[in-house]
Amino acid sequence: MAKIIFSVLILSGLGLLIFTNNKKDEVNTDKDKSGQEVSQESKNEQTENIQSKDFTEKTTLTKLMEKGGSYICTFINNTQIEESTGTVYISGKKIRGDFISKVSIPGLPSMDDINTYMISDGESSYTWSSMSGEGYKVPIAEQDKTVTQSDTSVPTNQELDYKCVAWVADQSKFSLPTNITFKTI
């Protein structure tokens, strides 16, 4: 009888040892809100990004893109004829900007708000507006050569007062719209 109890203890110990060794080799995954698996490494990145500090800074959108981290940044910019507001979502090398411009020229009827959007995946920048079903795709390396500030209402090189708060990035913000046709410049 003692031999049977001893054998059961040995087998139980071996089973526990094998089980714990296999657990160490497994990748720890959970599911995010969309039901997709998220690895422990991805969760650590999200934790690091949310630990980024909030800040307010007079800077350009280009410099915000270089900063990295995960932030939601907002700005308001008023001139004599235009009022612009924007929200910029940053996650690592990905960035999205949603901009609203309202143009008021004295003596002319007021115009509707113009919504302009931009998404950059680190390789290409995509821009489109509420005025058209078409947009533009520009490789980042070519962007400075082909798109100037007058070609787009996305203020990439204009210094503005950005107020930024840390966030856990929602990757769906960086998905391109399916109802817009992008032309490569």
Describe it.
By secondary structure, this protein is α+β, with helices and mostly antiparallel strands. It has one domain (43-169, 180-184). The protein has four helices and eleven strands. It has helices spanning 2-25, 40-50, 61-67, 140-146, and strands at 29-31, 37-39, 55-59, 70-78, 82-91, 94-103, 114-120, 124-129, 134-139, 160-166, 181-184. The protein has a nine-stranded mixed sheet. It has a two-stranded antiparallel sheet with strand order 1-2. The longest helix is centred in the N-terminal third of the chain and has 24 residues, at 2-25. Mean pLDDT is 73; it is low at 1-29 and 146-153.
Question: How many strands?
Answer: 11
The level of helicity is 25-40%
Tell me the radius of gyration. Answer: 25 Å
Element order: H for helix, E for strand = HEEHEHEEEEEEHEE
Structural class: alpha+beta
Give the N-terminus to C-terminus distance in angstroms. 83 Å
User: Helical segment tally?
Assistant: 4
Bulk shape: globular
Percent of sequence in beta strands? 35-45%
Largest sheet: 9 strands, mixed
Q: Give unreliable regions as ranges.
A: 1-29, 146-153
Could you say how many structural domains there are in total?
1
Give the spatial strand order of the biggest sheet.
3-10-4-5-6-7-8-9-11
Q: What value does the average pLDDT take? A: 73
Features:
single chain, 185 residues, alpha+beta, nine-stranded mixed beta sheet, two-stranded antiparallel sheet, 38% strand
